[in-house]
Amino acid sequence: MLFGERLLSTRKKKKISQDELAKKIGAHAPIIGRYERDEVKPSVEIATKIAEALEVSLDYLTGLSDVELDKNTVDIITSLQKLKNEDHQHIITTINALIRDAKARNTYA
């Protein structure tokens, strides 16, 4: 999926108009339409502002990742990365156990 398709899809999913998004990033609404139609590509700075405004990762918008990480998830990961290694490992172990249990529940549901 191209940048424009992901931008359009994410913007609509979040129920944000082109005009609202343009205001959030300090641009004019017509340029958002041009980005969505892949007529022009935004600069890295503008793409970053778009990702922040839509609360998704820049990697997702640019196609480097197919996982649409929301802002809350990114904030949690960032906080986790800043912890001491021992605390980090304990939390990862706990998360892995919770994920394993959730997958098991889904398998038998």
Structure, described:
Keywords: DNA-binding. It holds the Pfam family HTH_3. The protein is an all-alpha fold and 109 residues long. It has two domains: 3-62, 434 Repressor (Amino-terminal Domain); 71-108. It has seven helices and no strands. The longest helix has 24 residues, at 85-108. The chain is elongated and about 50 Å long. The chain starts with a helix and ends with a helix.
Topology diagram in text:
Layout: H1 3-13, H2 18-25, H3 29-36, H4 44-54, H5 58-62, H6 71-81, H7 85-108
GO molecular function, one term: DNA binding
InterPro entries: Cro/C1-type_HTH, Lambda_DNA-bd_dom_sf, RstR
Protein name: Helix-turn-helix transcriptional regulator
Produce a short descriptive summary.
The chain has 109 residues and is mainly alpha-helical.
Largest sheet: none
Please provide the ordered H/E string of secondary-structure elements: HHHHHHH
Coarse shape = elongated
The CATH C-level class name of the largest domain: Mainly Alpha
**CATH fold assignment of the largest domain:** 434 Repressor (Amino-terminal Domain)
Give the percentage of residues in beta strands. Answer: under 5%
- Would you report the number of β strands? 0
The number of distinct helices, counting runs of at least 4 residues, comes to 7
Q: Based on helices, strands and strand pairing, what is the structural class?
A: mainly alpha
> Mean pLDDT, nearest integer?
92
Approximate helicity band: over 70%
What CATH architecture label of the largest domain applies?
Answer: Orthogonal Bundle
Cα-atom radius of gyration: 18 Å
Low-confidence segments: none
